Amino acid sequence: MSRAERHALGRRLVAEGSVLWSALPVEWPTEGARGSVADPPELPGLAWRVWASLSSLIRRPQRSFAYVHEPVAHGAVLRLLHAVRLPLWLGLLVALGVQGWLRPEGATALRPINEVLDPRLCEVLSLWLLLMVPIGVPLLYFALGMATHVALTLTGGAPRSIAASMRAAGTALAPGLLGISILDLFLHLGWISGLGYLIALGLVGLSYFHQLGQALTGTHGISAVRGYVVAVVPLVMVLAVQLGRAILVLPDFPGWEPSVTHPYFIP
Q1: Which distant-in-sequence residues (6+ apart) come within 8 Å of 83 by Cβ?
Q2: I need a labelling partner for 146 at 20 to 30 A (CA). Which of 88, 105, 106, 189 fits?
Q3: Is 191 helix (H, G, I), strand (E, B) or coil?
Q4: 49 pLDDT more than 60
Q5: Among 5, 3, 37, 34, which Cα is nearest to 18's?
Q6: How far apart (Å, rounded) are the C-alpha atoms in residues 177 and 25?
Q7: What digits encode the pLDDT tens for the residues 184-222?
Q8: Any idea where the domains of the chain sit in the sequence?
Q9: What gap in Å lies between CA 185 and CA 151, rounded to an integer?
Q10: CA-to-CA separations, 83 to 26, 52, 95, 116, 131, in angstroms, rounded
């Protein structure tokens, strides 16, 4: 079967929605699956599945979570998140390496965080957190899932398992994670102001809030109001993690001015 034929088959399966047990192509059977409802070699590859899954999540968020197969394939969700996050992350590392090699020695620009932390410490922490992204993605996935499930339990009980909550919280993050990857690129390369970054991060947060509310409604069969109330908890976690990373390199902050008494201040 040719590549075009596999893609056509994939589009038909996505449109029908009930042929395979998941509306997200990234969760379809892989080459290692045997005895499944479709012959894996006839299905599209990972790159097509990732973009088709992102499209389904954005265009039909609630339908993407209408059915949850258990046990949940956490590996499939992590493949989606890493496929969305790592390509631009690798590009950013290369760009920072080239930028650091070509940049001449000079004075260090003061940032808002330098009122509290030494500039050299901020550079080291920022680089370390950036290098930890491949490990941070699965850690964030499991933390979001557990926090979401606890919030569901405290607001009336969780009809499905904690694994289903993890799948909902993690998969709903995929479109927002793409936005965070783009924002990281602009932030670390100095292509965006502090105010512009905060506005863009707010829009990414709203996107995740909407996606997760729909995901919880579809996964657990709860009301939309309760789904969005629960979604506040993981939303705060995602924004706190991203702001904690970004504050180390934000070039400015609304209302902040460099202090003339700072030891690194150069008039």
Answers
A1: 26, 46, 47, 50
A2: 88
A3: coil
A4: yes
A5: 37
A6: 18
A7: 999 999 899 999 999 999 999 999 999 999 999 999 999
A8: 3-60, 74-246
A9: 33
A10: 10, 12, 19, 36, 16
Distance CA 47, CA 169 (A): 22
pLDDT tens string 57-103: 998 887 888 778 788 889 999 999 999 999 999 999 999 999 888 87
Enclosing H/E stretch for 99: helix 74-102
State both tokens at 164: 């289903």
Q: Nearest 5 degrees, angle CA 36-CA 42-CA 44?
A: 105
Rounded CA-CA distance 64/53 in Å is 9
Query: Distance between CA 58 and CA 221 in Å, rounded?
Result: 20
Region at 190 (left for phi over 0; alpha for psi -120 to 50; beta for the rest): left
Q: Record the tokens describing residue 145, joined without a space.
A: 């899932």
